[in-house]
Amino acid sequence: MALDLQPGDEVIVPAYSYVATAEVLILLGLVPVWVDVLPTTFNIDPKEIERSITPRTKAIVPVHLFGQCAEMEVILKIAKQHNLFVIEDTAQAIGSEYTFYDGKIRKAGTMGDIGCTSFFPSKNLGCFGDGGAIFTDNEFLASKIHMISNHGQTIKYHHDLVGVNSRLDTIQAAILDVKLKYLDNYNKSRLDAADFYDNALSSVNQIQIPVRQKNTSHVFHQYTLVVNNGSRDELKSHLESMGIPSMIYYPIPMHLQKAFVNNHYGEGSFPISEKLAKTVLSLPIHTELDNTTQKFICDTIINFYNK
């Protein structure tokens, strides 16, 4: 809304992400243009972005999936060449850092025109209910976003824009104000847990542990394996039988969701996203995860493949 995108404008989004990335586009009459992701990081593929740009393209939405940044240097270069907006979806990567070729370091959500994050309780920085935030270093956009989020007003009962009620309530803000001070510690705890998993599971040939890009830190909102040989669902069931929760993010790619299906994209359109939907499995990861619990989880996985 702040960028004045018009119905029919195209916005490039990854086919492998949560629905929130795209549903707002449909609600505004915009056209989501799906592109495939990289098989290593699961983030949007810059080469596929470039192939998908048309005269109607107005913006790119890179999603920093599972906790590490997309290839922002390349994406920003493409956006500049084609005069496109960049809206970062950093709901899963708050606190992650991206290092540019010249050594400059930027936080996830601060590199594009606008960054968006979620404060849902399961996120790395979560409140006690629903909440979120928008980041921008553009004063004009910041002012406009403030107005839109508060019914299009800066002075009470003076509505200069058509807006929405999207204010963060005071209780959630107070909780986040405290928790924000500990964000780096929370992310360090998640990284320690990920290191434990890496060390224990790297020798299991049937699974691929998360790939960490050298130019971005990983804050591990999720620790997501790729399970080969068609054994993902069987492994998930085995973990459940041992009292170990696991999750599949996301079992149906965006372009195959009933809400978004159209004649342009069918099964086979985005093979990497479709393969990930059938092979990924996320293990428990949070700030209070202890080594004893992790050893039990890892031993359960190793024994499953050694049975």
Task: Please tag this protein with its features.
single chain; alpha/beta; Aspartate Aminotransferase, domain 2; Aspartate Aminotransferase, domain 1; 13 strands; about 35% helix; about 15% strand
How would you describe this protein?
This protein has 307 residues and is α/β, with parallel strands linked by helices. It folds into 2 domains: 10-180, 3-Layer(aba) Sandwich (Aspartate Aminotransferase, domain 2); 184-306, Aspartate Aminotransferase, domain 1. It has 9 helices and 13 strands. It has helices at residues 20-27, 46-52, 72-82, 139-149, 170-179, 183-201, 232-241, 271-279, 291-306; strands spanning 10-14, 31-35, 57-60, 85-89, 97-99, 105-107, 114-118, 132-135, 153-155, 158-159, 207-208, 223-227, 280-283. Helix 6 packs parallel to helix 9 (291-306). The termini are far apart.
